[in-house]
Amino acid sequence: MYENIDCTVLEQELKESLSEKRYRHSKAVAQTCLLLNDRYELHLDTTELCSCALMHDMVREWSREQLVDYALAHHLKLSSEEREYPVLLHAPVGASLLSARGFSEQVCTAVRYHTVGSIHMGKMGLLLYIADYLEPNRMHLCDQDRELLLALPKPEDLCLAVLKQERAYLVAKGKQISFSGEELYQFLCSGGTF
């Protein structure tokens, strides 16, 4: 396990390796995860949660070739969507790199599934998935819509609302809903909890 996580050190690492926009996004996702953890009284370890959120896009700016090369070289298990759309590879590649650095399985699993969601993502992954969508720098939501979403009583309700919005967007764009996202949608519709 990654001992003595220092989120300040992780922030500095990201500041040096990411664009200013991606760095701001990562910090905002971390702040949103902490807000959700408090809001829903989930009692997740705040240092692990913060590190997970900060590092979720650590390789998001790698080139398609770098992501594909890493995934192939490390024999990562990939979904059909990830094979078809290499931009999604930043999630499994990031999780693999964090695992190699000794981050906990919970952190790595959350990062692994933050792009398309999964019934296997756990509570930390649930918060990361939601926060990645809700963070205040994202322009697809106005403050009022964000507040309405945050008023939902359970994090699973909030995740389901996010999934519904993402489904509507994908349908409008003529894009396919991922298998993992559809499985998560059905799980939550049937009352599933993390």
UniProtKB/TrEMBL annotation:
Q: Which GO terms describe its molecular function?
A: bis(5'-nucleosyl)-tetraphosphatase (symmetrical) activity; metal ion binding; nucleotide binding
Q: Would you tell me the protein name for this molecule? A: bis(5'-nucleosyl)-tetraphosphatase (symmetrical)
**InterPro entries this protein is in?**
Diverse_Catalytic_Enzymes, HD/PDEase_dom, HD_domain, YqeK
* Catalytic activity from the UniProt record: P(1),P(4)-bis(5'-adenosyl) tetraphosphate + H2O = 2 ADP + 2 H(+)
EC numbers, comma separated? 3.6.1.41
UniProt xrefs under SUPFAM superfamilies: HD-domain/PDEase-like (SSF109604)
Q: Which UniProt keywords apply?
A: Hydrolase, Iron, Metal-binding, Nucleotide-binding
Output the PANTHER family linked to this UniProt entry.
BIS(5'-NUCLEOSYL)-TETRAPHOSPHATASE, SYMMETRICAL, SLR1885 PROTEIN
Q: What class of enzyme is it?
A: hydrolase
Highest rank taxon of the organism: Bacteria
Q: Where is the HD/PDEase domain?
A: 18-146
Q: Report the source organism.
A: Sphaerochaeta globosa (strain ATCC BAA-1886 / DSM 22777 / Buddy)
